[in-house]
Write a structure and sequence with these properties.
Layout: E1 27-31, E2 34-37, H1 38-51, H2 58-82, H3 91-101, H4 105-115, H5 120-141, H6 149-161, E3 166-177, H7 183-197, H8 199-206, E4 217-222, H9 228-234, E5 246-247, E6 251-263, H10 270-300, E7 303-305
Antiparallel strand pairs: 1-2, 1-7, 3-4, 3-6, 5-6
Helix pairs in contact: 1-2, 2-5, 2-7, 6-10, 7-8
């Protein structure tokens, strides 16, 4: 791992007065026909720290440097794939995304970036890629998501027939692709990020799930919709806590328990219940397709690190 992150030595001087003009064109990682430069790495690290209102010091840099590299690699993979499609991103979509990150939107972010010599243009390009990726996943897999109407109706009938209260969990999620070369470090760094900047900001920053745009929020999910593996983790934590990482085929999932409630079956609205079941199932499938697609790109594209 030390060789992989050797180029991140540049972060030792991130908060000094040294000029970075001489590293502007240094290529540190090459992904097919795309590159990641020293300047982009430095810019991304500073971007993350500034937006999270963290001091620019070596300790904070060390906490996020490997995550930053992973994010940039994933962005390049997505960018390569998106070039095959003609997906338009509207300015309104970008502005709404910026407001999710910072209440003051573009103006507030630009002010912070200018004070710290950070490129807003690079950040906007990253946003366009993320928004384009979400559109691509929807476009590519929407027709493949066929939910069985009879199964859903049977689920609803079972709930309404039950005399027991319906337990629901309000959850948020963070999903990241598995880094098999440093799984333990990856888990520890994500936990540190959650502790340092909060679950929602970590979701926006690193999650590959479609819920990332909403700070990872999944909303209220009925108990028997959850898989046995997830439910087992959820019932062991208290409100406000985060589960241990849940392993999927190619990814890790962290879930935060925001709240729990019991609903009186007699007061359950059948139409609303059906909509929730469909939405939950669709989101789960979209997230699965997204992580699998990105994992495939990682395996089929050449990723070379500069020594």
């Amino acid at each position: 791992m030390s060789k992989i992150y050797k180029f991140l030595i540049i972060t030792l001087t991130l908060y000094s007065n040294i000029s970075f003009a001489n590293i502007l064109n240094n290529i540190e990682v090459k992904i097919d026909n795309k590159i990641i430069t020293s300047f982009e790495i430095k810019n991304k690290i500073l971007t993350s720290l500034v937006l999270d209102n963290k001091d620019i010091n070596q300790n904070n840099i060390n906490k996020i440097k490997s995550q930053v590299l992973e994010v940039l690699i994933n962005l390049r993979l997505k960018e390569i794939e998106l070039e095959k499609y003609n997906l338009r991103i509207e300015n309104l979509e970008i502005e709404n995304y910026l407001k999710q990150i910072s209440p003051g939107g573009r103006a507030e972010i630009k002010r912070k970036f200018d004070l710290n010599n950070i490129s807003l243009d690079l950040f906007i390009e990253e946003i366009k890629i993320e928004l384009g990726w979400r559109k691509l996943i929807y476009q590519k897999y929407n027709d493949k998501i066929n939910l069985d109407e009879e199964t859903i109706e049977n689920e609803i009938k079972d709930i309404l027939k039950s005399k027991k209260p319906v337990k629901e969990y309000n959850l948020s999620e963070i999903e990241v692709l598995v880094n098999n070369n440093g799984l333990e470090n990856q888990i520890n760094e994500l936990r540190k990020s959650i502790n340092d900047i909060g679950f929602g900001k970590t979701a926006i920053r690193y999650s590959i799930s479609t819920s990332a745009k909403n700070k990872g929020k999944l909303g209220w999910i009925r108990e028997n919709i959850l898989s046995e593996q997830i439910l087992k983790e959820i019932i062991t934590i208290s409100t406000g806590q985060v589960t241990s990482p849940i392993k999927r085929a190619n990814s890790l999932v962290f879930l935060k328990l925001n709240d729990v409630r019991n609903l009186d079956v007699k007061k359950v609205n059948k139409k609303e219940l059906k909509e929730k079941i469909i939405l939950t199932k669709r989101n789960n499938l979209f997230n699965l397709y997204s992580s699998s697609y990105l994992s495939k790109l990682k395996n089929t594209n050449s990723i070379k690190y500069n020594k």
